[in-house]
TrEMBL record:
Keyword Magnesium attached: no
Organism: Metarhizium album (strain ARSEF 1941)
Keyword terms of this UniProt record: Methyltransferase, Transferase
Coiled-coil intervals, chain numbering: none
Keyword Methyltransferase assigned: yes
InterPro entries found in the cross-reference section: Methyltransf_25, SAM-dependent_MTases_sf
A family per Pfam: Methyltransf_25
A biological process from GO: methylation
Protein name, UniProt field: Methyltransferase domain-containing protein
Amino acid sequence: MTQYDSVGSLYLNVCELLFKQTELAIVERVIRPLLRPDDKIVEFACGTGFYTKRLLSWTASPLTAMDISPVMLGIASQSLSREVASGRVRFTLGDGASKTSYAPDQSIGFFDRAFASWFLNYARSRSELVAMFATVALNLADDGVLAAVMPHPTEDLAARKSAYSQCPLDRTWPRLDYVQELGDGSGWTSRVHLENMSLETTHMKKSVYEAAAREGGFRGKLEWRGEGLEETGFGEKWIQQFNLTAEEYRIQKENPMLGLLMVWKS
């Protein structure tokens, strides 16, 4: 049983958070231009289908979506029952750390694009992170690309731990607790607190994510993307919702939750 099996439909409330709407704006600006009309797309860690719905609206291509939680897959399948019936999307259960083809015919290199939102941050060790990248690479064609929503890329996780224990980051959602440094120094275990739940996750160093991608089979261009609050047009909403002073808003902008990792297979 995964932690998401117990979360279930509660996760639907996360989609209404200001953070999630800001994240969506960042993702759409980066991902949508990459999608070609004939792309075959695979989504890792689809959850309740938040991004599955968006991906289907951004392209006419068929979509395969996987997740490790049968409960989350059930919610996603129900909310997109018409698309499932028409063949526009197929949902499949799987463990991203296990090297598996998610192609309809179980072939290798079937997909042109892979999308993963908050997937790689659940690797519990560096070796598991490499295995997750390897699973994605196995499913991608040689000219395929992975776009992944990730924890903010940084080397100084101790500084990030300190920042998120102080105002205003200790009162805006999501809240982060950096619990324990991993024994090999590659990152920290952490807890992400949302309004009605907490999730256990891992934040690796930027260099670890990049090295693991290479070891997992990605040999092409690698870059981090992502716009800030003002670029997405959500800055004023953050100020109003959390009653941020000018100084607090500066701190909020300088400590973003996420980054978008773009990496090409070859």
